[in-house]
Design a protein that fits this description.
single chain; 330 residues; mainly alpha; two-stranded antiparallel ribbon; 74% helix
């Protein structure tokens, strides 16, 4: 019956010159999805990278998880058999007031660093979008130099700038502006300590955000921006309602990465503490795990803290990813 229908031409309509065509049958949904998915080829291509990732990251993570349920100290390092203590390490950590102080301090520092980094990185990316080729190249080289500098080297340089006796900043503030900053210690008080740490962390993180957001801005269609400009919208309105929807997935991924990196920052805090900060008042999660594990030799408690941090970061990542997927689906 279908072959007969295919042989028939279009039916004649009551309107002169018009022909009526029967609607074509839609393909089966299952077959369409199968063709789009590409079978098992994408999953097969992911297998080598997943195997390498499991070997490099998965196995140490499993060992860390096992250690968090054990009494693992210096004796176990030299061959003593570890003893399973169940949730004892987690109970000790979660009932320790110092852990909650360090956690609150770390979350607050990460929040400030992420917000400042994202704002400055987006502004630099917008600046690069407007600059000419020569100036954009100069800005890119400067960002690359800041990005390529190791965190320890950057912390030492900034430590010299904020040095108590010979620091450039104290000399400028006292000699040029007449302010009472001669011999001022920037690292002795927690608030000024984290002010310096925030500058160092943001200084090293802005290039990544700027380059990534700039790459996303180059994909925004110019005709859409021109149409919005012809409608009389301002620069901020165009960015909020036109540009941001195009680069929202990029912003979400960059924000997740910044939260992960800033919440577990180690090098900058530890180096500043070595220069002149008070460790007990300025510990963050990364340094706290290091001091509990290697400093006091309680690797079981250090493992428990590490697992708690990993779970926190996983929850934050899943929340942002699910939110981004839902917004893209609307």
């Amino acid at each position: 019956m279908s072959s007969v229908r295919d042989d028939l031409g279009p039916a004649v309509s009551a309107v002169e010159g018009e022909r009526i065509l029967a609607p074509q049958p839609a393909p089966a949904p299952g077959a369409k999805r199968a063709r789009r998915a590409g079978g098992f080829t994408p999953y097969a291509l992911l297998v080598p990278s997943l195997v390498v990732l499991a070997a490099i990251t998965g196995w140490p993570l499993i060992q860390l998880l096992i250690m968090s349920f054990q009494e693992f100290g210096r004796a176990q390092i030299f061959g003593a058999a570890p003893e399973f203590v169940g949730l004892g390490n987690y109970a000790d950590v979660l009932t320790d007031p110092e852990f909650w102080q360090v956690l609150a301090r770390s979350v607050l520092l990460a929040a400030v660093c992420v917000i400042v980094t994202m704002i400055l990185g987006i502004l630099v990316a917008l600046l690069m979008k407007r600059l000419g080729a020569a100036l954009r190249t100069m800005v890119s080289v400067g960002l690359l130099l800041a990005w390529a500098m190791p965190p320890l080297s950057a912390t030492i340089v900034w430590g010299w700038i904020f040095d108590t006796q010979y620091g450039v900043l104290n000399n400028v503030l006292s000699q040029w502006f007449g302010l009472p900053f001669a011999g001022h210690s920037w690292l002795i008080e927690p608030l000024s300590f984290f002010f310096v740490a925030t500058i160092i962390i943001v200084w090293g993180a802005v290039p990544f955000v700027a380059f990534t957001v700039y790459a996303g801005l180059t994909q925004v269609p110019d005709e859409v921006l021109e149409a919005a400009q012809l409608d009389g919208t301002g620069a901020f309105t165009r960015f909020r309602f036109v540009v941001v929807p195009f680069i929202r997935p990029i912003l979400a991924i960059v924000t997740i990465l910044q939260v992960i990196w800033d919440l577990r920052v180690f090098t900058q805090i530890y180096a500043l503490q070595s220069i002149g900060g008070l460790a007990e008042q300025t510990n963050t999660l990364g340094v706290y795990i290091y001091r509990v594990s290697l400093g006091s030799g309680d690797f079981g408690a250090g493992g428990a803290i590490s697992v708690i941090v990993v779970l926190m970061l996983a929850v934050v990542s899943v929340f942002y990813v699910r939110r981004t997927v839902k917004e893209d689906a609307l």
